[in-house]
Design goal:
With 342 residues, the protein is α/β, with parallel strands linked by helices. The protein has helices at 20-36, 58-67, 86-99, 116-121, 129-144, 173-181, 196-206, 230-236, 238-248, 268-277, 286-300, 314-341; strands spanning 5-10, 41-44, 73-80, 104-109, 165-169, 185-187, 218-226, 281-284, 304-308. 45% of the residues lie in helices and 15% in strands.
Length: 342
């Protein structure tokens, strides 16, 4: 099994009965906790017009989290680039990198992160997205380069800074782009598992080395819900299941507490749809989590696994990340033992 890094994706989830201020404090608490457990990075994702997710001003929230931590990398997973001017993003992340040198990542996606009407309010033009997205990435690379010093339009802060960029995707489109541009590729397996196999295959087979990266770098985002017992983990996972039912029903209300009986909430069709969308969800006790991660890694051989955990109770959420980290340590130890005995 290939060795891999492990990281955190946080959507800044808003929970029923809690405030958005509570959400941000919980995100900071999680980032500190993950830092102490030696998670590699902590990413926040841009979404809009959702009562359940508070990370709409992603760059601002990244600054808040980076200021409250010491060493863990903080970044976007991702900034939905067609929602913005390339220059503004270059300036924002140039500011972040200047404040927190060597700790800022810029993950970039092309999806709106919202509904169609809100996407229109953001100024997106869907007719040119597929052309606009790669052009904007090239613009960002230009703004961050030292060679742009003599240009009429410059990103200050931003110019001359080394800010790693990642291309995000939930289909095969961005796999082709990441391969062509020689950039790291992150796949949203936590909500769009259907094309992950093909996306990784395309990216690896067509990757072209660049000055940014000499070989493919694959990051997979999955759901992870761990507890001391398998029964408790499956109980806690009902918050995640309910959240996806709400998406299907177009009801983006704050995340609910867990329930004992999901069959009282979802229909057979909804259950099938939710379980398909949450195919890459690791749920269970430490041993079960370790086995699920091992099975996943033996198949996909990713460089990095990013865990998204929708758990209502904040302390249970922290505990989940601790158990998942312990599971990865046990896998590494087992692999090392096998290697030493060979």
């Amino acid at each position: 099994m290939k060795q891999f890094d492990i990281s955190v994706l946080d959507l800044a989830p808003v929970k029923q009965g809690k405030t958005i201020h509570d959400t941000f404090q919980d995100s900071l608490s999680l980032a500190n906790f993950a830092e102490n457990l030696d998670y590699k990075r902590f990413w926040l994702a841009e979404h809009h017009n959702m009562e359940s997710i508070a990370s709409s001003a992603t760059s601002v929230l990244i600054g808040f989290i980076a200021n409250g931590t010491k060493k863990i990398r903080i970044g976007s997973g991702g900034i939905m680039l067609p929602n913005h001017s390339s220059l503004v993003i270059a300036e924002q992340f140039g500011t972040l990198e200047s404040l927190f040198p060597g700790r800022i990542d810029l993950g970039l996606g092309r999806a709106p992160g919202t509904d169609g009407l809100t996407a229109q309010a953001l100024g997106r033009n869907p007719a040119i997205i597929n052309e606009q997205f790669p052009r904007q990435i090239l613009e960002l690379q230009k703004y961050f380069s030292k060679d742009n010093a003599n240009a009429l339009v410059r990103a200050i802060p931003g110019e001359g800074l080394d800010i790693p960029m990642y291309i995000l995707g939930s289909s095969t489109d961005s796999a082709w782009l990441a391969a062509e541009m020689g950039l790291p590729y992150a796949f949203a397996g936590h909500f769009a598992p259907e094309q992950m196999d093909m996306a990784f295959k395309i990216y690896r087979e067509h990757f072209e080395p660049s000055k940014y990266l000499d070989q493919p770098y694959v990051l997979a985002c999955v759901n992870g819900i761990a507890a001391e017992t398998s029964q408790e983990a499956h109980f806690l996972s009902s918050t995640l299941f309910q959240a996806f039912i709400n998406i299907i029903r177009n009801d983006r209300k704050p995340f609910p507490p867990p329930v004992v009986d999901m069959d009282a909430i979802w229909s057979a069709m909804e259950k099938s749809m939710v379980l398909q969308k949450l195919k890459f969800s690791f749920i269970g006790n430490q041993d079960e989590i370790a086995q699920q991660i091992k099975n996943f890694q033996e198949k996909y051989q990713v460089d990095e696994l990013m865990i998204n955990s929708h758990i209502y109770d904040h302390q249970k959420r922290l505990q989940s990340y601790e158990i998942i980290r312990s599971a990865t340590y046990s896998l590494s130890k087992a692999e090392q033992t096998i290697h030493n005995n060979c």
